[in-house]
Amino acid sequence: MAMVLVIATIATKMLTIMCSLIPQMTQHRHLLPTNDHLFVSSVSLPEKREGDKEPLKVLWFLYGLVKMDTDADKELTYKDRRSLCVSDAGGAGFKELIVDVEQVYGHTLHDTDTLILIYRKNSKKYITRINLPSREAVSTKELPDFGVVE
Q1: Which residues fall within 8 angstroms of residue 29, CB to CB, at 6 or more apart?
Q2: Do the Cβ atoms of 78 and 65 come closer than 8 Å?
Q3: CA distance 81 to 98
Q4: Quick one: which of 39, 142, 150 has its CA closest to 84?
Q5: How far is 116 from 97, CA to CA, in rounded Å?
Q6: CA atoms of 130 and 133, how far apart (whole Å)
Q7: Less Cβ crowding at N or C end of the chain, within 10 Å?
Q8: CB within 8 A of 128, min separation 6: which ones?
Q9: Cβ contact 115:97 at 8 Å
């Protein structure tokens, strides 16, 4: 009988500890206050590359966010202009950095704190350097037109 009481006491204490941890385990973060927008892309940074032997620790996320129906088809899709946004790995510090992007040509993580984006906006091509910890565009330069028609 005493053994059953000890086991029941231990089980009750474990259940109390587990219940106190559940709110922490189920916490979530909303990136935006409403569901009126469409995320058309999300990329974890740094990205895992073929040949990486160890898993990489995700530090940042890069998002493509459509906020308006810019092609007048009455729905938000990947065809609409988007904003480029970033957050840390937990979703904190979500920030819209570049708006009205027509097309993203690519991105690269120069180092753990610097993201380089190449994109088209207003029919011109740009390259922007982003400081990820401050979530600020450090520099933006228009790229020359090489005569390529899109």
Answers
A1: 90, 91, 92
A2: no
A3: 11
A4: 39
A5: 12
A6: 9
A7: N
A8: 97, 98, 116, 117, 119, 137, 139, 140, 141
A9: no
As a whole number of angstroms, the distance between CA 105 and CA 128 comes to: 12
Domain layout of the chain by residue ranges:
38-48+57-142
Contact in structure between 96 and 82 (CB atoms under 8 Å): no
Query: Judging by DSSP bridges, how do beta strands 103-111 and 95-101 pair with one another?
Result: unpaired
Bridge partners, 128 (sequence order):
117, 140
Nearest to 106 by CA among 145, 64, 77, 74: 64
Q: What is the pLDDT along the chain (150 residues), one digit of tens a residue?
A: 444 333 434 433 443 334 343 444 445 667 777 778 889 999 989 877 777 777 778 899 999 999 999 999 999 999 999 999 999 988 899 999 999 999 999 999 988 899 999 999 999 999 999 999 999 999 999 999 877 666
